[in-house]
Specification:
Layout (H helix, E strand, L loop, with lengths): L11 H4 L3 H18 L1 H4 L9 H27 L9 H29 L3 H8 L6 H9 L19 H8 L3 E2 L1 H4 L3 E2 L1 H7 L5 H16 L2 H19 L8 H9 L3 H29 L23 H15 L6 H7 L3 E2 L7 E3 L8 E3 L6 H19 L12 H22 L3 H33 L10 H16 L25 H19 L4 H12 L6 H7 L7 H20 L6 H4 L11 H11 L2 H14 L2 H9 L1
Parallel strand pairs: 3-5
Antiparallel strand pairs: 1-2, 4-5
Helix pairs in contact: 2-4, 2-5, 4-5, 10-11, 12-20, 14-19, 14-24, 15-17, 15-18, 17-18, 18-19, 18-21, 19-20, 19-21, 19-24, 21-24, 26-27
């Protein structure tokens, strides 16, 4: 793999390797398809005997031409195209983009007409195009007037103007690092992970200052939006709330989704409360404050250069499965990776078989290495699933997030295993748990907030924005435990989440994806080789079937509570390493603990609780062990 000395940028010459003439030829194919589609745009009736053959041909054309349209749209829209020396190439890309928009319009008309087909006709035609059945099934059951699946918005609505006006008027001023100049929210969030406690405190104070003042007003905007969502979907068949409508994207039953929320909530409450209790000891504090929630421990994980992060990521993928070897480097070799992207980090799919665009704003921090692993595994995920065709190779929300989180988990475990310095290893574990809190803990708080606002049996919750704020504060405090006292102003921190004003339960897909990735890693860790191949097979299927079907075919069930418990148990075992792993039992690590603090083994903590008479804490430990079936800790007690 060729790694450049500097940070890589997109190489459009490689991405557009066909050149101006090739781009023009592909554009002519798209234009020809649009012209030929005029005949069937007036109606889609394949009830006569020859209809199935025409339908199969139409689907193949939609798939092939849609693939070209996707490729050109991503090149033009998501790349900073400046072809000053080649005006011909620039013009050909503009023509291709215009043709791609026409193809999208034709595809939209097809989907609209397809939804109007009777169920009997639709099922008969789907039998003749088995490669497209999931795409057609999902398209057929969506109601565009109620739920446009592309944008993820209910009721065809957009972000409320009142929210946009309030959001656009926000400005942040962090006194110390920027001398009173305005900062972006992204810069402020980076300060939340600073080693300097003063900087972290100032950043949190500024965030709460900016978002607390319009909190009640934004809460009212959200409450009205949630009420409108409820009213918009009452006539939708078999859907009883925004969660049920959102399940049309997730392809999970409402019963199953609620069961997952309960299972993950129970385990997360135990795991994160224990983690923050131990983080308090590691930071030598009697009680954590809000600005310590993402604080690095022991100086934080040593930052990796881009070259090191890329090599470590590819090695982590290759150690897990040989079939993943080379997929990460292919993105770089194809010139499809940019580490100097000015916007948010993202991985954009091209057409099947082509390298996706990986766009990253590399700052050189420790978290950037884990973020790079997330993006590169998502790119590998798209490449693995390229065999199922353009209409279905892009995975759905849960599987996409699961792939990203799985790549991060592979790199995290490799870094922990290879780190020889116990202090640094603790820092890596804490960084991984901080990121897990951001994905799972914060996502659960937002999910419970939305349940209170959207549930038809809790409509009265939207009458008062204060109730929503209190619900968010209560859930976050319950997950964190008694090691940290969240300030009262924190109850309005959720109002800066743009996603809850648009697609409902968007945060929940991140929770499910993260926990599913942890469960997959736990299943493969130390298991026979066929488990690894089963997991890779999940990623090969892309979005060609519902997640429940894909996992069932690979020997796992999303309906099994044990599956989700394995993910939380994996996270809990990571928490346990902060006090119980052998490599922490040396003088270097013990010196981190101030005199008078509990001993670093779970057995000693348990016995000390009994001696001091703190029976409640002892029982909490017993419940924790019983909850996750950690028999090895019980055995330690009896041996002791």
């Amino acid at each position: 793999m060729k790694i450049p000395d500097g940070l890589p940028q997109l190489d459009l010459n490689l991405i557009c390797s066909a050149g101006a003439d090739g781009i023009r030829r592909e554009t002519q194919v798209m234009e020809g398809f649009v012209r030929d589609s005029i005949g069937w745009r007036s109606g889609l009736n394949f009830s006569y005997p020859g209809g199935k053959d025409e339908f199969r041909k139409l689907m193949d054309e939609l798939d092939a031409v849609g693939s070209l349209a996707r490729r050109h749209r991503e090149i033009v829209c998501h790349c900073d195209v400046k072809w000053e020396a080649d005006d011909t190439f620039t013009e050909s890309l503009r023509e291709a983009y215009a043709a791609a928009r026409k193809v999208e319009a034709v595809t939209g008309v097809f989907e609209w007409l397809w939804r109007s087909q009777p169920k009997k006709t639709a099922l008969r035609l789907m039998e003749h195009v088995p490669g497209y059945w999931y795409y057609l099934a999902r398209t057929w059951k969506f109601d565009p007037s109620i739920y446009p699946e592309r944008s993820g918005e209910i009721g065809g609505g957009s972000i409320p103007p009142a929210y946009l006006k309030t959001m656009s008027g926000r400005s942040y001023k962090l006194a110390n690092p920027s001398q009173g100049k305005e900062d972006s929210l992204e810069k402020l969030e980076a300060c939340l992970r600073s080693e300097d406690e003063t900087v972290r405190r100032s950043a949190w104070d500024e965030i709460l200052r900016v978002w607390t003042r319009p909190g009640p007003a934004l809460g009212r905007v959200y409450a009205e939006t949630a009420l409108n969502w409820i009213n918009a979907i009452t006539g939708l068949k078999d859907c009883y709330g925004p969660m049920s409508v959102r399940n049309l994207v997730y392809d999970l039953e409402r019963r199953l989704m609620m069961a997952i929320i309960e299972a993950v909530s129970r385990g997360s409450s135990i795991t994160f409360s224990e983690y923050f209790r131990r983080k308090k000891v590691l930071m030598n504090k009697d009680r954590l404050e809000l600005h310590d929630i993402f604080a690095p421990v022991n100086g934080g994980m040593a930052p990796l250069s881009f070259r090191e992060a890329l090599c470590e990521t590819e090695a982590a993928f290759g150690e897990f499965s040989p079939s993943l070897t080379g997929l990460a480097s292919r993105v770089l070799d194809r010139g499809s990776l940019s580490a100097v992207w000015p916007g948010r980090n993202q991985c954009r799919p091209m057409s099947p078989g082509e390298s996706p665009l990986v766009l990253m704003n590399w700052q050189g921090g420790a978290e950037d290495a884990l973020e790079l692993a997330r993006l590169l595994f998502h790119a590998a995920h798209l490449q693995l699933s390229s065999g199922v065709g353009d209409s279905q190779f892009v995975p759905g929300p849960i599987l996409a997030e699961c792939g990203r989180a799985f790549g991060e988990e592979l790199l995290t475990r490799r870094l922990i295993a290879r780190e020889k310095d116990p202090s640094r290893r603790v820092a890596i574990v804490c960084l991984a748990l901080d990121r897990a809190w951001n994905d799972i803990g914060r996502g659960l708080a937002l999910a419970r907030l939305e349940i209170a606002a959207h549930g038809l049996d809790c409509v009265d919750a939207v009458d008062s924005p204060e109730k929503l704020g209190e619900e968010y504060l209560y859930t976050a405090s319950e997950l964190i435990g008694d090691s940290m006292l969240l300030p009262r102003d924190f109850r309005w921190e959720w109002t800066r989440e743009l996603s809850i004003f648009r697609p409902p339960y968007f945060a929940w897909e991140r929770v499910m994806g993260k926990v599913a990735a942890l469960s997959l890693w736990r299943s493969a860790d130390g298991a026979e080789e066929n488990w690894v191949e089963r997991i890779v097979d999940i990623f090969r299927r892309g979005g060609s079937a519902p997640p429940t079907y894909i996992f069932d075919k690979c020997g796992m069930s999303l309906d099994d509570e044990d599956f989700w418990n394995r993910g939380i148990e994996s996270l809990f075992e990571l928490v346990e390493t902060l006090w119980t792993c052998p490599w922490l039992m040396d003088e270097g690590y013990l010196s981190l603990h101030p005199p008078g603090e509990p001993s670093v083994t779970s057995v000693a903590v348990f016995c000390r609780c009994l001696i001091l008479g703190t029976w409640r804490l002892s029982m909490e430990n017993i419940k924790r062990w019983d909850c996750f079936n950690n028999y090895r800790y019980v055995n330690l007690i009896f041996r002791f």
